[in-house]
């Protein structure tokens, strides 16, 4: 079994909500005592951190969505992909209060349907960000390549961006569907209080299914998209270097350069926040760590870091894009 929170739990033999991810599936705790009851500081700190991520994420991503939908000059292909990134982050931050409530209650009182929904959205957060960044990297690569060759891109339209985004969402839903199917309410037979948890309940052999799910997430949510992105940016940097050396080549416009830099920075932030999460999968599959305070603390830190990605992107948009910065300022002026 696995906890609801973005596959972050490796106390799979217990039914408690612990957002840890780097502990081994074989780790056994007393199932009447979740990790934060043994180390109560986690019980206090985590809701504060999650609440901060939720508040900042909802505010920032709502502003991004509003700006792109309302400002006519913001309706570009790149910004439409950014809109979808913001929607994915918004969905995650909207359900984060339920995760906070489960953590505080040490119980899942919300029923089976909401369990499947919350777990699905939580897993969508793992795949959607990196997939849209992969699409944005492909788009930046094609723009740079077309600029170097002095070619136009007649098919790169707002409508085409909508079609691509729909395809990405469909792909993410298909990938997340197995987690939705296995999501269920569980009551540990060792728990005298009969507290419930929203978990992934795998069939026998459970350990094999658990490892398969971790490899599935690692390969589809990290290795494949990141490999594609690395190849694209390596070729792109080579093309840009060639562009500088070729005086007859058409130089990239200022707007194109800024858009490329912004996409690269958003990508770098995503990898910074999510790489420890995926590396912890490798640790969990290859080692059997004891749940010491240090190990549990690192696990929670990794979880918080991956969650934080959902609230940090708006700051990058405001920093790198004049249009976003002016639109955000206008929203603040109207609010005051």
TrEMBL record:
Similarity comment: Belongs to the G-protein coupled receptor 1 family.
Protein name (database record): G-protein coupled receptors family 1 profile domain-containing protein
Cellular component per GO, a single term: plasma membrane
Xref: PANTHER family: NEUROPEPTIDES B_W RECEPTOR TYPE 2, NEUROPEPTIDES RECEPTOR
Xref: PROSITE patterns: G_PROTEIN_RECEP_F1_1 (PS00237), G_PROTEIN_RECEP_F1_2 (PS50262)
Keywords: Cell membrane, Disulfide bond, G-protein coupled receptor, Glycoprotein, Membrane, Receptor, Transducer, Transmembrane, Transmembrane helix
SUPFAM superfamilies cross-referenced by the UniProt entry: Family A G protein-coupled receptor-like
Subcellular location: Cell membrane
Annotated membrane topology: Multi-pass membrane protein
A GO MF label: G protein-coupled receptor activity
Organism: Coilia grayii
Transmembrane segments: 42-69, 81-100, 126-148, 160-187, 215-238, 259-277, 297-320
SMART domains assigned to the protein according to its UniProt record, in alphabetical order: 7TM_GPCR_Srsx
Pfam families linked: 7tm_1
The G-protein coupled receptors family 1 profile domain, residue ranges: 60-317
């Amino acid at each position: 079994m696995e906890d609801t929170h973005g596959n972050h739990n490796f106390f799979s033999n217990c039914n408690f909500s612990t957002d840890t991810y780097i502990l081994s599936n074989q780790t056994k705790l007393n199932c009447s005592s979740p990790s934060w009851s043994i180390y109560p500081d986690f019980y206090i700190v985590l809701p504060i951190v999650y609440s901060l991520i939720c508040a900042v994420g909802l505010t920032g991503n709502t502003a991004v969505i509003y700006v792109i939908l309302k400002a006519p000059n913001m309706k570009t292909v790149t910004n439409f992909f950014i809109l979808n990134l913001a929607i994915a982050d918004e969905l995650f931050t909207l359900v984060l209060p339920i995760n906070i409530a489960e953590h505080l209650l040490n119980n899942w009182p919300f029923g089976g349907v909401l369990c499947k929904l919350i777990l699905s959205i939580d897993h969508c957060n793992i795949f959607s960000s990196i997939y849209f960044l992969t699409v944005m990297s492909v788009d930046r690569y094609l723009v740079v390549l077309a600029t170097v060759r002095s070619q136009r891109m007649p098919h790169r339209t707002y409508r085409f961006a909508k079609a691509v985004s729909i395809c990405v969402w469909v792909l993410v839903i298909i990938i997340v569907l197995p987690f939705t199917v296995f999501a269920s309410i569980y009551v540990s037979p060792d728990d005298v209080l009969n507290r419930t948890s929203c978990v992934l309940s795998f069939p026998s052999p459970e350990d094999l299914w658990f490892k398969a799910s971790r490899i599935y997430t690692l390969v589809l949510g990290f290795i494949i998209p990141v490999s594609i992105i690395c190849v694209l940016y390596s070729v792109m940097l080579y093309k840009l270097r060639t562009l500088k050396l070729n005086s007859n080549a058409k130089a990239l416009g200022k707007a194109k350069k800024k858009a490329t830099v912004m996409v690269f920075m958003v990508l770098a932030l995503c990898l910074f926040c999510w790489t420890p999460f995926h590396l912890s999968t490798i640790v969990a599959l290859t080692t059997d760590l004891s749940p010491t305070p240090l190990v549990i603390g690192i696990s929670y830190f990794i979880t918080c870091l991956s969650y934080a990605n959902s609230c940090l992107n708006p700051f990058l948009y405001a920093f790198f894009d004049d249009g976003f910065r002016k639109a955000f300022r206008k929203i603040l002026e109207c609010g005051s």
